[in-house]
Amino acid sequence: MERHVIKIGGSLMTQVPPIINALRDARVRALIVPGGGIFADVVRLIDSKFLLSPSISHWMAVAAMEQYGYFLSDVGGLKTTKTPRFDGLFVLLPYEFLSRGDIELPDQSWATTSDTISAIIAHKWNARLYKVTDVDGVFVDGKLMRVVDASTLLSRKTCIDDNLPHFLIHKKMDCIVVNGNFPERVVKSIKSGEIEGTLIRGR
Questions:
Q1: CA distance 38 to 67
Q2: What is the pTM of this model?
């Protein structure tokens, strides 16, 4: 059985019901990893004002992911899980899972957010990785890239976090970025492999 890890960004809060309904209607089995969204934005604001220690701001941000996970569960009608599973459609509540140290993160900083966390989970559980966000894909110098090497994105500010391209290169894995405002694109990428977004190649 092919496995899928789908990171759903916090920018898509209003689109959660149609995204989840589309995945459910297509009988997609996947682990959904929550972004941080407005919950993480609060942590960023507090961090910038009070200069929190990296470890504290990291765990507050993971707690923000957990809050968005509960939102996804409630609004999307999804079951939650505290450890990765792929025998249905589940949303991961990551705080306890990450606090156990089941996966090793590159660091505890704003360079390692839910994007890289999702990639590490996808690699460990041999799953395909999808980042569902509110833009059509990855833009480089104003141009939408249908396919881009992860090495091209090093030190560039795009819709992915700073450590994701490093991890993709290190593990020789890919990531598909797709616009969740069009749920049919998400389903199409998963079911047929036809990508209406960006394929980031780490191989």
A1: 10
A2: 0.97
Joined together, the tokens standing for residue 62 give: 């993971």
Please give the structure tokens belonging to residue 135: 């833009």
pLDDT given at position 187? 98
Domain boundaries, the chain: 3-137+175-194
Q: How far apart are CA 153 and CA 134, in angstroms?
A: 19
Dump pLDDT digits (tens) for 62-104: 999 999 999 999 999 999 999 999 999 999 999 999 999 989 9
> Residue 89: which of 133, 25, 153, 152 has the closest Cα?
25
Average pLDDT of every residue of the chain: 97
| Residues 162-184 pLDDT 10s | 999 999 999 999 999 999 999 99
Return the CATH class of domain 3-137+175-194: alpha beta
Give me the DSSP letters along the chain. --EEEEEE-GGGGGGHHHHHHHHHHTT--EEEEE--HHHHHHHHHHHHHH---HHHHHHHHHHHHHHHHHHHHHHHT-EEESS---SSEEEE-HHHHHHTTSS--S-SSTTS-HHHHHHHHHHHTTEEEEEEESSSSEEETTEEESEEEGGGGTT--SSS-TTHHHHHHHHT--EEEEETTSHHHHHHHHHT---SEEEEE--
Q: What confidence score (pLDDT) does residue 203 get?
A: 85
